[in-house]
Amino acid sequence: MKRVSKPVFFIVAILILALSYFAIFGYSTQYGDVKTTVIKGVNDIRWGIDIKGGVEATFKPAGDVDATDEEMEAAKAVIETRLVSSNITDYELYADSASDRIIVRFPWKEDEKNFDPEKAIEEISATAQLTFRPGNSYATTERDAKGAMVYKTPTGETEEILMDGSNVQKAQPMIDNSEGVSKYVVSLELKDASKFAEITKNYLNKTVSIWMDDIMLSAPTVQTEIKDGKASITGNFTMSEATDLANKINAGALPFKLETVGFGTISPTLGSSSLMAMAYAGIAAVILIAILMIVIYRLPGFIATITLIGQVGLMLASVSGFFPVFSSFTMTLPGIAGLILSIGMGVDANIITAERIKEELRSGKTIDTAIAKGSKSSFSAIFDGNVTSIIVALILLLVFGPTNILSIIFGQSTTGTIYAFGYTLLMGIIANFIMGVFASRLMLKSISGFKIFRKKFLYGGVGK
Length: 464
What we know:
alpha+beta, four-stranded antiparallel sheet, 12 helices, single chain, Gyrase A, domain 2, 2 domains
């Protein structure tokens, strides 16, 4: 076995414990009354509606309007934009075109103790105001639920309104092959061609931004004077992005208003006290597992305990927004189930390796040979089991994620729930590979180089 430097054990252990500490407790600075979160921890995890509770409302077109599927999607886009504008990012939103109903659920707001859900419902269902404005100046920015930047509140020259949504006939995503390369664009058709021609003439080679209420949807540059009232918005759009932008533009030209037909509150499945009890139970379970691992497997069990703590820390970091490149993930009950399952798989991976090392030692192998062969022979079993679970998690993410492939069969209300389980399961398996497989073996090979730890008894073998 190729020896690993002795200090590696301490370096890896310190890094794991540091990561776990900050992933759990986070880090923030206080200057007067202003608190700035530098590193997000457990307290920054966004809890889902099933844990925290919230509001549910059902909307339909006012009057006897029989809305088309496209109009329902456009109305849904209005509500989604309003939710983001109100800083409500943890929401569930479904459009049932068959019955002309839109269902929205969102949790109580964190930063308001006197949050008025009825007022929030009225605001998000109000008629959308689509406007075309010069330039793209904005006052504030924030990130939406997907981590994308949102530009808000027009300022300066952009406060002027050139045209509103009443002049939009329709917008739709299309594929443009005019330059020999297929790319997605948003086709725009206007009612008053002369008015749009005047705008494109006056702002040729300048930016004309498109806004819904006070949120900027797009900021295209006018490339030519358009006289026939037919334009296209180009950019590096995916099909989903082009469809989303078209829906939002169409929302400003809807021929109907939305009215609330149902309103109520959602009681949390877990309250704060139950969540705390679950946390204490989890801590007790980890401590019990650690004691059993150390008693049964000794030194490999001790190292497994350190890496298990690291796995928990890495999983919490994956949902709290600990890593700036990833937006925080809303934790739900199925999400918690995914974390618990992956922790069990992490314990199982360490047990398999420790048992193989014991078998090699009992057959007369040296400590170095037993660690090398035990780690090698156990890897295939761990790898096969984890890869199978990764495939399942990926299928859940793809099928029940933003694509909603199976929503026709199971209903859209199941998509977000199962997606949360798939996400946390996948993050847990990745953490298991990093901590339970690679880090634990690196630490074991390193610590075995110390003379005081070169006793077979410490690795589950017999003799000295």
